What does this fold into?
Amino acid sequence: VPPDAHTSFEGLARRLLRAIEQPMVLPGGVAATVGMSIGEAVLAPGADPTAVLNAADADMYKMKSRLPTRTTGDVVRQA
It folds into this structure.
């Protein structure tokens, strides 16, 4: 996600989690819900993009191991 001075990662993650928790109606009238885990890493100038992506991926798996739907960091909140 490109940097935005008006949007925090935590706020974005909460909005994504709220949007995904809404049930989806599948063919045949079946309602389905899904969960999501979100990882966070910051790409600083000069940083290796692959290493940063790997860090975000590791963070996402750390959150996934705690609960089915999580945001990142030590301050973890559910939507």
